[in-house]
């Protein structure tokens, strides 16, 4: 089973820092997500500073490059752009079924990978509108979409969503235990479902 929000809140752009990778270790990065009170995450100064500190905590002599922003991306374009950036920096990465990034880190390349991840995060940060916490109006819009259009779309594709909570419960639990009709979707169907039934409404960030 899958939750749209699994792993999204604090891992915005493949920030797998702090892991000790050996052999051929997997790259697994979740796509950005909206979380009220936390925000979608971003390659903001604070986030990049945290990445930098975590890299240096593992590799005190690491040479972290100064990076300029090349393009501010949307949550829709992030997976492809980030994957291509990592690939061009020596770590072949592809977009996976749930809209994140997936690949492998060869033995002995953990430090180089973390620096490449930092570089790509800094070069392609999320647009500002995605880095702000959702307001009450946006959360209500998401609830209406989840319980209406998205639930119906998933049903047409054979996925029956669980009973939705009330709006009040949805709002109350959104940050700690968010409900989504995607929770009933099997992992094997994610690629097809994500294309046919977008996990967030197109106008959520307008």
Number of helices: 6
**Overall tally of structural domains:** 2
Strand ordering within the main sheet: 1-3-2
Structural class: mainly alpha
Written as H for each helix and E for each strand, in order along the chain, the element string is EHHEEHHHH
Give the overall pLDDT as a whole number.
Answer: 79
Helix content: 25-40%
Rg over CA atoms, rounded to whole Å, is 18 Å
User: Uncertain spans, ≥5 residues at pLDDT below 50?
Assistant: 1-25, 33-43
| Principal-axis shape | elongated
Major sheet details:
3 strands, antiparallel
Beta-sheet strand percentage?
A: 5-15%
Distance between the termini: 30 Å
Please describe what this structure looks like.
- The protein has helices at residues 45-58, 78-88, 110-123, 136-156, 167-173, 190-196; strands spanning 25-29, 93-95, 101-105.
- It is mostly helical.
- It has two domains: 25-130, no CATH class; 136-196, no CATH class.
- It has a three-stranded antiparallel beta sheet with strand order 1-3-2.
- The longest helix has 21 residues, at 136-156.
- The protein starts with 24 loop residues before the first strand and ends in a 10-residue tail after the last helix.
- 35% of the residues are buried.
């Amino acid at each position: 089973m899958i939750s749209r929000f699994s792993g999204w809140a604090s891992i915005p752009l493949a920030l797998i820092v702090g892991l000790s990778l050996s052999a051929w270790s997997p790259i697994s990065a979740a796509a950005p997500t909206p979380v009220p009170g936390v925000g979608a995450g971003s390659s903001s100064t604070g986030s990049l500073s945290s990445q930098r500190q975590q890299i240096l905590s593992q590799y005190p002599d690491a040479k972290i490059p100064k990076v300029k922003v090349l393009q501010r991306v949307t949550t829709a374009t992030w997976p492809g752009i980030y994957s291509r950036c990592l690939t061009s920096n020596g770590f072949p990465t592809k977009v996976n079924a749930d809209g994140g990034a997936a690949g492998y880190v060869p033995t002995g390349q953990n430090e180089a990978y973390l620096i490449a991840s930092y570089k790509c995060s800094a070069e392609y940060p999320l647009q500002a509108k995605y880095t702000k916490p959702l307001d009450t109006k946006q959360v209500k819009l998401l609830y209406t979409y989840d319980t209406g259009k998205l639930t119906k779309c998933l049903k047409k594709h054979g996925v029956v969503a669980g009973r939705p909570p009330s709006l009040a419960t949805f709002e109350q639990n959104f940050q700690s235990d968010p409900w989504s009709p995607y929770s009933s979707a099997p992992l094997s169907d994610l690629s097809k479902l994500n294309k046919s039934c977008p996990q967030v409404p197109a106008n959520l960030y307008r």
